[in-house]
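Tutorial, part two.
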Amino acid sequence: MKLKSIASLALAALFGVTAVFAADSAKPNIIFILADDIGYGDWSCYGATKVKTPNLDRLAAQGRRFTDAHSPSAVCTPTRYAFMTGEYAWRKPGTGILPGTAALIIEPGRVTVPSLLKQAGYITGVVGKWHLGLGATSPTDYNGEIKPGPLEIGFDYAWLLPATGDRTPCVWVENHRVVGLDPADPIKLDYTVQRGQPGSFVNGIPRIGKQTGGKTALWKDDEIADLLTKKAVAFIEKNKTKPFFLYFATHDIHVPRVPAPRFKGASQAGVRGDVIQEFDWSVGEVMAALDRLKLADNTLLIVTSDNGGVLDTNGPDSFNSGTVETNNGHLHNGPLRAGKGSPYEGGTRVPFIVRWPGHVQTGTSDALICHVDMLAAAAALTGQKLAVEAGPDSFNVLPALLGEKRDKPCRDHLVEHGNVLALRKGTWKFVPAAPVGKGKKGKTRKPTAAELYNLDDDIAETKNVADQHPEIVKEMTTLLRALREKGRSRP
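Running the prediction step on this input gives:
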């Protein structure tokens, strides 16, 4: 027994956590469903009227709906990095939007959500969009064993869409290998080819990067949601008798938007609305599996998005997959300003619903929380203590997720990562002044003045009150500089 105890402590030290498990060894299953490009106003339980999301509405009624939850970044790869590691991605170079040829950007051995939960006895799996790089060096070789990848940072099982639906390679990766690849037809990728150029089309859809080879391994775009949902449910079924963690990262509703035929024309907001309803179906299938297996009461289920919504146009239907006209007045980011890529609230404030019957208080919460906090919350949930160097920006928001009453908020400030770093503190939102400089494509960027908004009465960020509150601008400027320079924000 002593040898086992010593071994357990050694393993805990290896993963950067100290085991302090509670006497009650029962642990809830954890499912984290991360949508892609779904905005604050895209679900009917958040005010949408042109799309119907009955499963998400039911989940919200049975759980807790957050109105001030944020993705760690306004774009995909940095959000996924921060969720996994508990570290703001802007702290680490190389965590921007990755090509499909990028190497793994999370170093094996560091504490991640799956490694921490694995240390606590969970079976861990990821199904869906990865976009965190694969392999030890770039460009990734997809023709043999692909590692390191999810299995080297804490997952027991992985079924992946390697990058994004509009980036090559357009193949599935299971654990360390491409599924169905013919060795006589090796995959070759060329990222000098831009989307829409000759050679960029796969399955009739323009992609970023040219792919040749791998014909027997190509996915079918209108089957992506069905297949990912099937794999997610299969993981739940296979591990129903033990604690499990499932990270289900859907392709919906990222471009190219190619819904299954039964969802075409189902909404009143064009194909973008159709794939929102397809996403709702995926969530419903997970909920149905939990009900069927009698796991719902012992499962912490979280559903959210990786960044704010966006109208963009890449797809097979005359590239008309998300225009103002097809959107038909649907407010994809609700009352919020701007959207994906932006430092304003529309860039990172996202829908976020939590359900754990008997443990999560039902209703609505205005607590400030972020996906970067999931590492610390998972540690608290499983009775583990994070090492000082682990999760440097991850706050324990478990009390907020559960709806427990506290004298102080779990998190009182948040850096919002758009094309600049902005800062939330309480009801105040600060966007720092930008000096003259070079913007994208070398164009001269005009200087901008500092912006300050009181979100209590101006959630749309329309009234800049920086001139009226110079003391708050000074305070926020000092805090943002300190957060950048200190290298951590976790208490």
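Residues 157 and 442 are 43 Å apart (CA to CA). In part three we will examine how such features are distributed along the chain.
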